[in-house]
């Protein structure tokens, strides 16, 4: 006798979506999460009246169809995620507005005229966020894709975006998933942020699912007809298990799967310093991309109080500094004080007065922040997806689609639930007992 129909490991958006959908189908699904809160890479920290998005920063009104349908079903209306209404600037000696907007093609947004023409051609072609491997670009890396074009295209557009949003290395990362995502989500002023924190969707799902937090899983064992989830001396048996954790974690928890894709699906780490300010700084754009050619320490500056006014108490500010991928390895094990000092010092030239305005710094390290869409992983993705649902251990997460966004996480959860629902519902026994 098993303890539960489906045990879902991971209370991020993918795992919670999976459990919620299974519950609707009549399955008994239980979510087990190592952390004390739900959300995974979409958690929000609440400190002294500040709402601090610790990893994911925004969503989109375009290209997020499954997310918006799920939100509506949960009773979370569009007003819960209002448009940011501001753009993104590129630093080239100063902040230059209009990145990824039509106006940027006219004003420059840090690009030369030739590079602007090359950028206008970027959006041509068919890109599929669900099957990025089908693109005509194949396994072309971002660096290889940019090589025939003006150097500004790489140095003042692609590299800052790739490194600043995902922590990717353009020489390692495939261009097709990047372009699929960029062309799907539309211009930055249409992007949105959940009013009450980026964990809004996770909290809404968790309210309708059975979630156990503070439950770190050590191993998942496939017994053929069922599976066991092991956590210290505790053991949960289930008819099926969904690993809704980053691919490297999934590979460690269930090494018996032996998938080449799981081995190749690496993740990039991210280090952030969230600065609680005594006054608002920055503007008019809510984010500033910083090319490696201009600053090799800070890759992105997010003015969270401009992203949504509720992110900081009235009259104060909240700024997030994201470390450049080149310095992340050494910052992962540095003290919080050293990380905050180094990032704040490097950002002072970008945001004058940042040091003096900072009341407190909160440092966050996310060792598995974004799936890294390497050409090798891209080549193996379709085969991995085709094998899903054939055993008692299944998988969910944005990495299943090699698309670092919450829409991919939601989509993967819906598909995992669909694969499992038809074969794990226990038959109704005499008397109505299951």
From TrEMBL:
Gene coding for it: hemY
Species annotation: Amycolatopsis keratiniphila
InterPro entries the UniProt entry points to: Amino_oxidase, FAD/NAD-bd_sf, Zeta_carotene_desat/Oxidored
Lineage: superkingdom: Bacteria
Domain Amine oxidase: 13-420
GO molecular function: oxidoreductase activity
Protein name: Protoporphyrinogen oxidase
Gene3D superfamilies per the UniProt record, alphabetical: FAD/NAD(P)-binding domain, protoporphyrinogen ix oxidase, domain 3, Protoporphyrinogen oxidase, mitochondrial, domain 2
């Amino acid at each position: 006798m098993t303890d539960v129909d489906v045990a879902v490991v991971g209370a991020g958006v993918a795992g919670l979506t999976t459990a919620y959908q299974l519950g609707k189908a009549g399955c008994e699904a239980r979510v087990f999460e190592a952390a004390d809160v739900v959300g995974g890479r979409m958690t929000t920290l609440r400190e002294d009246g500040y709402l601090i998005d610790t990893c994911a920063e925004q969503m989109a009104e375009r290209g997020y169809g499954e997310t918006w349908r799920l939100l509506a079903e949960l009773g979370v209306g569009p007003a819960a995620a209002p448009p940011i209404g501001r753009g993104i600037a590129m630093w080239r000696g100063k902040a230059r507005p209009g990145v990824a907007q039509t106006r940027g093609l006219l004003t420059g947004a840090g690009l030369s005229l030739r590079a602007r023409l090359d950028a206008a051609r970027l959006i041509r072609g068919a890109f599929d966020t669900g099957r990025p491997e089908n693109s005509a670009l194949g396994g072309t890396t971002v660096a290889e894709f940019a090589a025939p074009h003006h150097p500004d295209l790489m140095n003042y557009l692609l590299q800052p975006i790739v490194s600043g949003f995902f922590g990717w290395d353009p020489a390692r990362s495939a261009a097709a998933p990047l372009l699929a995502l960029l062309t799907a989500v539309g211009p930055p002023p249409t992007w949105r942020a959940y009013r009450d924190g980026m964990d809004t969707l996770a909290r809404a799902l968790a309210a309708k699912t059975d979630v156990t937090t503070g439950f770190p899983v050590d191993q998942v064992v496939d017994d053929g007809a069922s599976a066991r989830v092991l956590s210290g001396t505790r053991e949960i048996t289930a008819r099926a298990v969904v690993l809704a954790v980053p691919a490297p974690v999934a590979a460690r928890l269930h090494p018996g799967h032996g998938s080449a894709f799981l081995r190749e699906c690496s993740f990039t780490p991210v280090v952030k310093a969230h600065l609680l300010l005594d006054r608002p700084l920055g503007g008019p754009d809510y984010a500033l991309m910083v090319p490696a050619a201009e600053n090799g320490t800070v890759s992105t500056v997010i003015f969270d109080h401009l992203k949504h006014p509720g992110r900081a108490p009235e009259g104060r500010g909240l700024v997030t500094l994201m470390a450049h991928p080149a310095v992340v390895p050494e910052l992962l094990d540095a003290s919080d004080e050293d990380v905050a000092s180094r990032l704040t010092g490097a950002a002072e030239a970008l945001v004058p007065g940042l040091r003096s305005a900072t009341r407190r710094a909160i440092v966050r390290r996310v060792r598995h922040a974004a799936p890294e869409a390497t050409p090798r992983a891209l080549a193996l993705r379709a085969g991995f997806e085709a094998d899903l649902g054939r055993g008692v251990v299944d998988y969910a997460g944005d990495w299943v689609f090699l698309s670092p966004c919450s829409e991919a996480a939601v989509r993967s959860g819906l598909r995992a639930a669909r694969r499992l629902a038809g074969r794990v519902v226990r038959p109704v026994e005499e008397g109505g007992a299951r």
